[in-house]
Amino acid sequence: MISSADLPDTIPVFPLPGALLLPRARLPLHIFEPRYLAMFDDALKTPHRLIGMIQPREVPGGGERRLHAIGCAGRVTAFSETEDGRYMITLSGASRYRITREVSGFAPYLKAEVSWDGFARDLGPGEDDASFDRVRFLNLLRRFFASRDLATDWDSLKEAEDELLINSLSMLCPFSPEDKQALLEAPSLSTRRETLVTLIEFALRSGTDEETMQ
């Protein structure tokens, strides 16, 4: 576990649409672009080994892309290198953060000054969802997976802890980047579950399948 004292003021940030990382969850990443290979190498040289995942957002009225204000930092906890120099890495979600200023410099990747205020709960133990109706939720999820021709290990879902189940589905389900951002910014596990249910119900009503599984 990382403590609040270990959280730096400046971190490298990795803009990646649709790639959601949540506290205490794990995100596998394939690193191959030269700038992000440099980012990864530099992150390994720090005591905290943090990389900040962030969602880009499109600016209305133009093709310009900027970053959302809130992301989630993950600690590099595993990696392997391929023969051609690419990396397969695992980020373990540490805490959400708010970008206060993008930092200019000589690095080929983006850095930002960040604030961790308001996200102290992310560093604590896992959350429970006292009002979680698992049977109803799994029935809804079965309909959603059937409509998308998706398969899963239903026995594992039945046994998974509340936080692991809700956060894993939030990260893996085929939602738009803006929907993923709403899941990230949910202030509590129960709020995230309510948001997740709303997104699934909307997808079932719309009957569209524009997104694909990560």
Describe it.
InterPro entries: Lon_prtase_N, Lon_prtase_N_sf, PUA-like_sf. This is Lon N-terminal domain-containing protein. It comes from Rhodovulum euryhalinum. The structure is a single chain. With 214 residues, this protein is α+β, with helices and mostly antiparallel strands. It folds into two domains: 4-123, LON domain-like (Archaeosine Trna-guanine Transglycosylase, Chain: A, domain 4, Roll), CATH 2.30.130.40; 134-206. The chain contains six helices and eight strands. The chain has helices spanning 34-44, 134-147, 154-159, 162-172, 177-185, 189-206; strands at 10-15, 26-31, 50-54, 56-58, 65-67, 70-81, 87-103, 111-115. A five-stranded mixed barrel has the order 1-3-6-7-8. Strands 4-5 form a two-stranded antiparallel sheet. Strand 4 (56-58) and strand 5 form a beta hairpin. Helix 4 crosses helix 6 (189-206). The longest helix is centred in the last third of the chain and has 18 residues, at 189-206. The chain is globular. The two termini are 27 Å apart.
